[in-house]
Amino acid sequence: MLTDAQLQATLETLIDDNSGQAYGAVWNVVADDNRVHVTLTLGYPAQSEQAVLEAKIKELMADSRSLVLDIDFQIKSHETQGNIAGLKGVKNIIAVASGKGGVGKSTTTVNLALAMAKEGARVGILDADIYGPSQGMLLGFAEGTRPQVREDKFFVPPTAFGVQVMSMAFLTTKDTPVAWRGPMVTGALMQILTQTDWNDLDYLFIDMPPGTGDIQLTLAQKVPVAGSVIVTTPQDIALLDARRGIEMFNKVKIPVLGVVENMSTHICSNCGHHEAIFGDEGGASLAKEYNVNVLGKLPLSLAIREQSDAGRPIVVNAPESDTAGIYQSIARKLGATLASQQGSEQGAQFAMPTISMSDD
After folding, report:
1. Which of 149, 210, 221, 305 is deepest in the core (most CB within 10 A)?
2. Which long-range contacts (CB under 8 A, 24 or more apart) does 300-306 make?
3. Could you read off the pLDDT of 130-189 as tens digits, one per residue?
4. How far is 67 from 325, CA to CA, in rounded Å?
5. Other C-beta atoms within 10 Å of 96: how many?
6. Reduced to 3 states, what is the DSSP secondary structure of residue 49?
């Protein structure tokens, strides 16, 4: 039978699959002859690992005592580019970007955000694609959904599956084109970002439009971004554009937390055969080139498309599926990667502007 100190020392050398490093001094063990109470305190949410970790700890204990495992997390606000003040109500902003359209970035964003919420975090989504917002449809909001307005100044974001959401789709109709020039688009982005009353978020995911234009540059100059995620597909043309996205974030000092390879393999809906129709290991070669992690590889799956179109993302509609499990793994790895960076408890908050508006 291991003593408290022996078990704790052993747990500290256990490898965290999400970071690839030893857990270190994040365990606390209190035991008697009948029970072992273990508390794990992480810098990122990982509630879905309860059963896996319990099994590992029981194997290390190698005795008949009962086990109680508590997984806690303490999410800090992390440093951002430049000296940009933090955003009120948000600890960390994460940009989800791609160099080109059509790689599944919005679907990845919504499922990643929902996966992070299932891990235990408080999460929001900002749909920054002003010309083609899609988060309203992906999350099943009814046509005509509008945010409430507080004090004639602030949008109260609608929620779906426990996630706070703000999108230009809530301020226009699906048949209304946004025929704006660049300055109007960037102004609208800053308005919906800073005038939304985000409620105590650990992570705000920004679903970026494709490319490296006005919105991306405005984000880099005016928005406190803790990190970014690049979504790509394996084929060369997508990887070429993804490189431009990584280079842009590097130039503006926003850390690239990792690459998500979407449509990695096609899964036949009849026989289940996997085939890499867009090429193999493209995301891995890109990640190696820029010394970042591959957070995960997602299949080209009919179920993902059907459930997204129906407003029931696969993470909530089929939580036990292999694909939902991949999204959960990506969320944990993303959180662990961000947590490994130097934390910042800066108290500065973004000052909300005073702008009058109506909720019509």
Report:
1. 210
2. 300/262, 300/263, 300/264, 300/265, 300/266, 300/267, 301/267, 302/267, 302/269, 304/107, 304/111, 305/107
3. 776 788 889 999 888 899 998 888 999 999 999 999 988 887 766 565 555 656 777 878
4. 25
5. 23
6. helix
pTM comes to 0.88
| 261 CB-near residues (< 8 Å, 6+ apart) | 232, 233, 234, 282, 283, 284, 294, 296, 297, 298
Phi, psi of 205 (to 5 degrees): -90, 125
Query: What residue spans of the chain are helical by DSSP H?
Result: 4-12, 50-61, 105-118, 135-138, 182-194, 214-222, 236-251, 282-290, 302-309, 314-317, 322-339
Whole-angstrom distance, CA of residue 105 vs CA of residue 102:
8
Q: Are 81 and 225 in contact (CB under 8 A)?
A: yes
Could you give the maximum distance between any two Cα atoms of the chain, in Å?
Answer: 71
Q: What is the pLDDT of residues 84-112, one digit of tens each?
A: 888 999 999 999 988 667 788 899 999 99
DSSP for residue 329? H
Are residues 298 and 108 in contact, defined by beta-carbon separation less than 8 angstroms? yes
* Helix, strand, coil share (%) of the chain residues, nearest 5: 35, 25, 45
